[in-house]
Amino acid sequence: MAVKTKKKGKIALIVLGSIVGVIAFLLCVCVAVSFVGIKSNQNFIKSLEPVNYESQLEPVLEDGYYTFTTDNDFRVMQLTDIHIGAGFLSIKKDSMALNAVAAMVSEEKPDLVVVSGDIAYPIPFQAGTLNNKNSAKLFAELMEQLGVYWCPAYGNHDTETYSYFTREDISEFYTSGEFEHCLLQTGPEDVDGFSNYVVNVKNTQGKITQSVIMLDSQSYVGNGIIDGFIMKYDRIHDNQVEWYKNEIAALTEKNGGETPKSIVFFHIPLIEYKDAWTEYVDNGNQDTENVKYIYGKVGEAGDAIYCAPENCGLFNTALELGSTQGFFCGHDHLNNFSLDYKGIRLTYGYSIDYLAYFGIMKYGAQRGCTMIDIAPDGSFTSTLENYYQDKYSSVKAKEQVDMGEWIPKY
């Protein structure tokens, strides 16, 4: 019996060793394929020409704010939910996302690109990796190659709980000095989040004509895997609202006592997005005293607006201060409306996403950018620009997609 027991033990060890060996081999293959895919996309980025500006505006750091100076219009491009996986499962989709960004940026020649969250999508069963820094690296290298200034505001997927790198890690990477066109500032240490900062636009007389404000809308309430899975989203925190209030006061003082106009970017929509859309729909899709329809629709399944259940107070604070003309968010890839609510524009940007929503890479009506043109007096207009227009030529041919309405399969 002792001999049989020893034989069974040896067989068990051999089987276990074989299983471990197979798993180790598969992991090595996955890492190798991911490395090859990342190098392939990096080579594509290196093949791109810098954006051909007639006269590019360059920001300077003044009193802690990156500041552009112009007496002319200022062009902002909002990109959102780019969702670069940077793993062995997402190589092709990452290439499509990078190509879409390059084509639109090269054509529109914005003075500033603001990414309202989710550059990265390190979801292992879709991307094949937990390494969110590789996603950040690909996008930062793309913008550096194009030579275009850009600002990120973090989304919930940029740093998942199980990702290798935290918001602090990614912020240190962006601000390491390697990417001179990235204007990220992490914000005060005593304020929650890592992308609370302001970029100013002023005229040659020194007056601030527009303050572009970025806010970290956080991730999940418990910041855990389960909360992410059940879409229990967080909100902009109270000390961030207080920071926003103090910044408006400081900018007003800097502007000689005149409150500057501003626009604010974040990822997860405010609860007022839901309030405004509900009021509009309940009135038979007609304007009300509070709501004026500008463009777009809710395309998410069940007309969903995935905001936090609690009101963070930012909207009401903005009403009181009278600076902010518009809020811009992402997060809900199929929502693209813009409404005037109580005198402030609430706008969703077009998304890029080829990866997160199952089957979405085959559809194109929801994919593109939002162009925001700011006049010298600080007023602005915004337009949705679909990626599949003829004007967006690219190094790689654009893929064939269904331009009909995409119906979510969840």
Provide an overview of this structure:
- The protein has 410 residues and is α/β, with parallel strands linked by helices.
- Helices cover 32% and strands 18% of the residues.
- The protein is built from 9 helices and 14 strands.
- It has helices at 2-46, 91-108, 124-127, 132-146, 167-174, 225-229, 238-254, 271-282, 314-321; strands at residues 60-62, 65-69, 74-79, 112-115, 150-152, 197-202, 208-214, 262-265, 291-295, 324-329, 338-341, 344-348, 368-374, 380-386.
- The strands form 2 sheets. A 9-stranded mixed β-sheet has the order 1-2-6-7-8-10-12-11-9, with helices on one face.
- β3, α2 (91-108) and β4 form a beta-alpha-beta unit.
- α2 runs parallel beside α4.
- It is globular, with a radius of gyration of 23 Å.
- The N and C termini lie far apart (56 Å).
- Residues 20-27 have low confidence and may be disordered.
What fraction of residues sit in β-strands? 15-25%
Biggest sheet, in brief? 9 strands, mixed
Q: Name the average pLDDT.
A: 92
Structural class: alpha/beta
Low-confidence segments: 20-27
Shape: globular
Say how many strands there are: 14
Helix content: 25-40%
- Please report the distance between the alpha carbons of the first and last residues: 56 Å
**SSE sequence, one letter per element:** HEEEHEHHEHEEHHEHEHEEEEE
Strand order of the largest sheet: 1-2-6-7-8-10-12-11-9
Number of helices: 9
Q: What radius of gyration results from the CA coordinates?
A: 23 Å
